[in-house]
Write a structure and sequence with these properties.
Number of domains: 4
Radius of gyration: 23 Å
Strand order of the largest sheet: 15-12-14-13-17-18-16
Structural class: alpha+beta
CATH topology of the largest domain: Uridine Diphospho-n-acetylenolpyruvylglucosamine Reductase, domain 3
Shape: globular
Strand content: 15-25%
Distance between the termini: 22 Å
CATH class of the largest domain: Alpha Beta
Largest sheet: 7 strands, antiparallel
């Protein structure tokens, strides 16, 4: 079908002015944050209800039109890129609170709700939605669920998966399923809800989600510590975690800190420059907690695991210290980074990081590396920056070669080639480094069951 035919047919189904064909819309909604693939969608549709989504999917099945779901478009694996004349299904207008239950401490929202809006709604009710990351101001709940987003609080609160009580989905066949219905206990066979969490839109569209909320943390406090080595970072983690409940434990390199402070004119946390920095967050509900934190800090200093440190004294200082970590991605985005988010079990992090670092430095000495990540859950972000004199296409090709070796190292350590960003197009060729041939066959069988005509986000994650 031509784009104009698609527009006329869909507007008859979901309403006038719900489909766009103009170049601006095709460019905006056909891409995500990746820069490797150019957008080339056929049309852009804007549903407002689950029934609208169902009609679009049924139309797509009848006419063999591929669909790419589009949320906040903050993905880093090209999972929301439409580069092959697909119909883009945009969730921007499905952003309402459907229901809230203060007794159950749960809220049902449409899939297009912005993460930050959900956090604000929870705060208005005296509650807390803890899944948080730098793109919270633009990412959407449906997209977060589709990629099982993690972020900066995983060490205490877990991944997005841990907060999803129920889902309403439209499958690739065009059927509406209400999954789990908000229940905490429901042992009635396969939990299909969890198949859609992390499926990257390959099985269907998440139109509504029932989300669990929790109590608001009290008196959050941040420490930033200068650390001489990754092995010392792990000793700091063990020391604090054995005694205190941490809400976050992040790390970043001196290179990352230097770029952030220069680009944003932020103050360094202290004068001492160290190879790595650890950021710890905890609830300081009373003086006893603060006393314990200071005792542990002194213990780390005595053991030479920490060379310097600072602790927040108020909310402004807390936010400023967090900015040193959270502004890294935005800062390096101006230098065309090639990003990889990798994970291993926490105890293997130092040896793994050293192995990757050594390989990249020896094989590609002109490439600048920026490390940061969620060290408390074993998630490392490897960022390779493009040399100024290297063509972008050539740079990405070289990095593709780098990735194959890095992922082989990751496989040897029993890790994952995608800790939280998903597979999409960027890592599809490398899925076998984390999944066995048997697992991939089962994944393909699941895909075929929910999407037999292969219209849902085709080419993402799996070849079929």
């Amino acid at each position: 079908m031509t784009p104009e035919q698609i527009k006329q047919t869909l507007e008859a189904l979901i309403g006038k002015d719900r489909v766009r064909l103009d170049g601006e819309a095709l460019d905006i909604y056909g891409r995500d944050w990746t820069k490797i693939h150019s957008p080339k969608p056929r049309a852009i549709a804007f549903p407002r209800t689950t029934e609208d989504v169902q009609k679009i999917v049924q139309f797509a099945n009848q006419n063999q039109v591929a669909i790419v779901p589009s949320g906040g478009r903050t993905g880093l694996s090209a999972g929301a890129v439409a580069s092959n004349n697909e119909l883009v299904l945009v969730m921007d207008y499905m952003n309402q609170v459907v229901d809230f239950n203060p007794i159950d401490r749960s809220v049902t929202v449409q899939g297009g709700m912005i993460t930050e809006q959900l956090q604000a709604f929870a705060e208005e009710q005296g509650l807390y939605y803890p899944v948080d990351f730098a793109s919270a101001g633009s990412s959407q709940i449906g997209g977060n669920i589709s990629t099982n987003a993690g972020g900066i609080k995983v060490i205490k609160y877990g991944m997005t998966r841990d907060w999803v009580l129920g889902l309403t989905v439209v499958t690739g066949k065009g059927e509406i399923l209400n999954l789990n219905k908000g229940l905490i206990k429901n042992n009635t066979g396969y939990d299909l809800r969890h198949l859609f969490i992390g499926a990257e839109g390959t099985l269907g569209i998440i139109t509504e989600a029932t989300i669990k909320l929790t109590r608001t943390p009290k008196d959050l406090t941040v420490m930033v510590l200068g650390v001489p080595s990754m092995s010392a970072v792990m000793e700091v983690l063990k020391t604090f975690q054995n005694t205190m409940d941490l809400t976050a434990f992040e790390f970043f390199s001196e290179n990352a800190l230097a770029k952030v402070t220069a680009h944003h004119q932020l103050q360094r946390p202290f004068e001492t420059a160290t190879p790595y920095y650890a950021l710890l967050e905890f609830e300081a509900e009373n003086e006893g907690v603060m006393d314990t934190a200071m005792q542990l800090f002194e213990e780390c200093m005595e053991n030479a695991w920490v060379e310097d440190g600072v602790i927040s004294q108020n909310e402004t200082q807390l936010q400023n210290l967090w900015s040193l970590r959270e502004f890294i991605s935005e800062t390096i985005s101006h230098e065309t980074p090639y990003k990889n988010d990798l994970s291993v079990i926490v105890s293997k992090v130092p040896e793994f990081l050293q192995a990757v670092d050594t390989f990249v430095e020896e094989t590609y000495p002109g490439f600048e590396i920026v490390w940061f990540g969620h060290i408390g859950d074993g998630n490392l972000h490897l960022n390779i920056l493009k040399p100024k004199d290297l063509d972008q296409a050539e740079f990405f090709e070289k990095c593709h070669q780098v990735s194959a070796k890095v992922f082989a190292i990751t496989q040897a350590f029993g890790g994952s080639v995608s800790a939280e960003h998903g597979v999409g197009l960027v890592k599809k060729d490398f899925l076998h480094f984390s999944r066995s041939p048997e697992e991939i066959l089962y994944m393909q069988a699941i895909k075929n069951a929910f999407d037999p005509n292969k219209i849902m986000n085709p080419g993402k994650m799996l070849d079929s």
